[in-house]
From TrEMBL:
InterPro entries: Glycosyl_transferase_4, PNAcMuramoyl-5peptid_Trfase, PNAcMuramoyl-5peptid_Trfase_CS. Coiled coil: none annotated. Belongs to the glycosyltransferase 4 family. MraY subfamily. It is found in: Cell membrane; Membrane. The lineage of its organism: Bacteria, Pseudomonadati, Pseudomonadota, Gammaproteobacteria, Alteromonadales. Its EC number is 2.7.8.13. The keyword Transmembrane applies. Catalyzes the initial step of the lipid cycle reactions in the biosynthesis of the cell wall peptidoglycan: transfers peptidoglycan precursor phospho-MurNAc-pentapeptide from UDP-MurNAc-pentapeptide onto the lipid carrier undecaprenyl phosphate, yielding undecaprenyl-pyrophosphoryl-MurNAc-pentapeptide, known as lipid I. Its cofactor is Mg(2+). This is Phospho-N-acetylmuramoyl-pentapeptide-transferase. It is a multi-pass membrane protein. CDD domains: GT_MraY. Pathway: Cell wall biogenesis; peptidoglycan biosynthesis. It catalyses: UDP-N-acetyl-alpha-D-muramoyl-L-alanyl-gamma-D-glutamyl-meso-2,6-diaminopimeloyl-D-alanyl-D-alanine + di-trans,octa-cis-undecaprenyl phosphate = di-trans,octa-cis-undecaprenyl diphospho-N-acetyl-alpha-D-muramoyl-L-alanyl-D-glutamyl-meso-2,6-diaminopimeloyl-D-alanyl-D-alanine + UMP.
C-alpha cells in the first residue's frame, strides 16, 4: 500500500525511490510487524486477562504444566494482526502470490479462532469438532490448490524441485493439487501439535520463515536463480515481504511467549502460521525442503501418528506421551531444556535446507 504512495511522491523527491527496493521494504516489514506486536502485546494480554480467556491444561500431562492454567491464550490474533498489517503496508498488493498467502493466513486463522473460541469462551473442551476442523482446512487448501494450478503461467510453477539434484524437476500435473493439499493441511496441523511449550513453535516458525525469505528472493531474481540453477519465478520476490513480516511478528510475540509465557498463541496462531509456511513452500517450489527445515514440526506430527497407530494396533504406547516434547518432559527434562534443544535442532535443519541451494 505504501509503495503506491512512494511511487506518487517520487515525482516530488527522488529520495522516495528507496521504498521501491525490496531489501528496504523487507527491513521495514520486519520492523513494522515487530513494533505492532511489542506495542499491542501488553494491551492484548491485559484484555485477555480481563475477559478471563485463559488456557485449560490437561490433568494427564506433565504436572509442571498445571501452573499454566489460566494463562491468556488466543494471542495468535496479535501475530496475525502484525503479519497482515505489515504485508498490506509494504508488499505489492497486485501480486497474486501475496494475496493467496494472505488468504491462507486469514482463513486458517479464522478456523483456529473458532476452535479457540469454543474451548476457552464457551468452555467446550472439544472445541471445533476434529472432522469439521479438517473439513474447513481442506476446503481452503483445495480452493488454493485449484486456483494456483489453473492460474499458473509457466512450467516451473507446477514442477517438483528435488533437493540436492540439479536436473530432477518432474512436472507434477494434477498431482500438484494433491501435493499442495497435503502440504497446507499437514503443515498447519504439525505446527499446531508443536505449540505445546513456551516458545517451542514460534522460534522454528521464525527460522523457517526467514529461510523462505532467502528462497523467495533468489527464486524471484533472474540472476541468482540462473546461478543456483533453480527455476526463475518472478512473482516469488514479493513473498520476501510476507516472510519478513512473519519473522517480525514472531519475534514480537516471543517477547511475551518466552518461558515462562505470559500468553499462548492458541490454534488461531498455530494453524495460521502452519498454513503460511505451507503455502510459502508451495509458491517457492520447496515443499521437500520444508520437510527438512521444518523437521521439528515433522517429528512432532510423526510422534502423534506413531503413538496413536501403535496403541490402536498393539495396545502399547511408544512414547510416554505425545507429542514428543511431552515425552522428554516426563523423562525428567526441564521445560526450558526441551525448548532450547528443539530450537537448536530447528536451526541446524534450516541451515541444511539452505545448503540445498548450493549443494545441487
Amino acid at each position: 500500500m505504501l509503495i503506491w504512495l512512494a511511487e506518487w511522491l517520487r515525482q516530488f523527491d527522488t529520495g522516495f525511490n528507496v521504498f521501491s527496493y525490496l531489501t528496504m521494504r523487507a527491513i521495514l516489514s520486519t520492523l513494522t510487524a515487530l513494533v505492532i506486536s511489542v506495542v499491542l502485546g501488553p494491551r492484548m494480554i491485559r484484555w485477555l486477562q480481563h475477559m478471563q480467556i485463559g488456557q485449560t491444561v490437561r490433568t494427564d500431562g506433565p504436572q509442571s504444566h498445571l501452573s499454566k492454567s489460566g494463562t491468556p491464550t488466543m494471542g495468535g490474533v496479535l501475530i496475525l494482526a502484525a503479519i497482515i498489517s505489515s504485508t498490506l503496508l509494504w508488499a505489492d498488493l497486485t501480486n497474486r502470490y501475496v494475496l493467496v498467502t494472505l488468504f491462507v493466513v486469514a482463513s486458517y486463522g479464522v478456523i483456529g479462532f473458532v476452535d479457540d473460541y469454543r474451548k476457552v469462551i464457551r468452555k467446550d473442551a472439544k472445541g471445533l469438532i476434529a472432522r469439521w476442523k479438517y473439513f474447513w482446512l481442506s476446503v481452503v487448501a483445495i480452493l488454493v490448490a485449484f486456483y494456483l494450478y489453473s492460474s499458473s503461467q509457466q512450467a516451473a510453477e507446477t514442477a517438483l524441485l528435488v533437493p540436492f539434484f540439479k536436473e530432477v524437476m518432474p512436472q507434477l500435473g494434477l498431482m500438484y493439487l494433491v501435493l499442495t493439499y497435503f502440504v497446507l493441511v499437514g503443515t498447519s496441523n504439525a505446527v499446531n501439535l508443536t505449540d505445546g511449550l513456551d516458545g517451542l513453535a514460534i522460534v522454528p516458525t521464525i527460522l523457517v520463515a526467514g529461510a523462505f525469505a532467502i528462497f523467495a528472493y533468489v527464486t524471484g531474481n533472474v540472476n541468482f536463480s540462473a546461478y543456483l540453477n533453480i527455476p526463475h519465478i518472478p512473482l516469488t520476490s514479493e513473498l520476501v515481504i510476507v516472510c519478513t513480516a512473519i519473522v517480525g511478528a514472531g519475534l514480537g510475540f516471543l517477547w511475551f511467549n518466552t518461558y515462562p509465557a505470559m500468553v499462548f498463541m492458541g490454534d488461531v496462531g498455530s494453524l495460521a502460521l502452519g498454513g503460511a509456511l505451507g503455502i510459502l513452500a508451495v509458491l517457492v517450489r520447496q515443499e521437500l525442503v520444508l520437510v527438512i527445515m521444518g523437521g521439528v514440526f515433522v517429528m512432532e506430527a510423526l510422534s502423534v501418528i506413531l503413538q496413536v497407530g501403535s496403541y490402536k494396533l498393539r495396545g502399547q504406547r511408544i512414547f510416554r506421551m505425545a507429542p514428543i516434547h511431552h515425552h522428554y518432559e516426563l523423562k525428567g527434562w526441564p521445560e526450558p531444556r526441551v525448548i532450547v534443544r528443539f530450537w537448536i535442532i530447528s536451526l541446524i535443519l534450516v541451515l541444511v535446507g539452505l545448503a540445498t541451494l548450493k549443494l545441487r
